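Shipment paperwork, digital attachment
Item: protein structure file
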Amino acid sequence: MAEKIEDLGIPMRPARPVAQPLVPARVTDLSRPGNEPDKTPDSSSRPRADQAERRTMIVGREISLSGDIKSCNRLVVEGSVEATLHECREMEIAESGLFKGKASIEHAEVRGQFEGELVVSKRLLIRATGHVSGTITYGELEIERGGRVSGLMQENGPVPYVGIVRAGD
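Attachment content:
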């Protein structure tokens, strides 16, 4: 009896195939050799996704990282980093982020916390939620209302002229 299937007269539709969700490739997957995106005739006119995010390091929330970080274009800190940062152009510390150590960079935006030695050759921006402490050297400085700075600060530029200036000279 179990071997015979009977038609009960119930209308049936064929089952839909299970579709795989469309998930964009991760930046790290795109930059690996052998994982090049398919070339279509019009793809040469569009910038590749891996070009925009190349050499970007993101330390996510609840992630702790320690060590030496070299040769990145951009570092985004959402978690905790205890490191020495070399040869990096930009650093962004999110509100949830903490960076402890030494960093030598061109541009920095701090919404979270930085502790240590920070050398910013161009622009240092401390947002309202940001706190920077330690030895800070900067080219240009902007601090939003609420942003905090403590420690030794010095401008990185030409040594200012020290002398006596008299009117009419």
